Amino acid sequence: MRFIIIDGLDGSGKSTQAKLIQRKYLAQGESVILREHPSSDNSYGLKAKKALLGRGKVNKMRASVYYALDVIRSVKKYHGKADNVIMVRYLMGLAYLPLPMAKFLYMFFTMVLPTSEHMFFLDLKPEEALLRMLKRDEEEMFENLDDLIKVRRKALKLAQGWHIINSKGNIEDVQTNFNNILNELDQKNR
Question: Which domains can be identified in the chain, with CATH numbers?
Fold first, then answer.
């Protein structure tokens, strides 16, 4: 089973690339489960999304707790149930917390949750991410330049050993980078 993790700032193209990867493996006749967090099919994901649309420290904490529970639920329910399991927004939600806490929880979660060599962080300058997010209908609490700068800095510290893909280019260029790495990993694991 390929366990593919795609993380990055909001607006970096995570969902778009996950759907393209899903199509790639479906076209090869493989089964694929795609999970995006926060998800809309359970109470944890719905509560996380509601908290993200709110403001203040209480909503930040609620968003973090419900997000983590949503991810844990997805892992328990779907890990190992298909040839490919793709998780969008998995561990880097921790980058929204203060760095010392984020580092500690990252170490903890990487010991209790599955990881893989298929971990991708879509990197995008915060200014570009913000421009992309302005096209959306709703605004989450962290979708401002100051928070995006802080979150990106922390996420890049946490993502040591991940495949970092610059997602500033067009969708096809980013997809090509993904496919090159996925094909290289597939060759290595044959």
Answer: 2-37+83-188 (3.40.50.300)
